[in-house]
Amino acid sequence: MTTSGKASGNGGVSPAEQRRHYISRQDLPLHCPLPSMSLWDSHPRVYLPIETTGQAQCPYCGAEYVLKD
Predict the structure, then answer these.
(1) pTM over the 0.85 mark
(2) Are 22 and 68 in contact (CB under 8 A)?
(3) I need a labelling partner for 39 at 20 to 30 A (CA). Which of 12, 13, 21, 26 fits?
(4) Is 36 a member of any domain?
(5) What gap in Å lies between CA 47 and CA 64, rounded to an integer?
């Protein structure tokens, strides 16, 4: 991932702080919040189907995810 997420090590970003996250296939299955995100103010983990369309949006926080190949 580039913008945030497992590989970025960005110091615990909450989903609301950053709206667009780039996901690679190695990070699937996709769920929000991501492991690197701060969880104290987040929502329950929800798995998002991104494989078919290449994009997904979290119904809780509105974070957008883009699958990059």
Answers:
(1) no
(2) yes
(3) 26
(4) yes
(5) 13
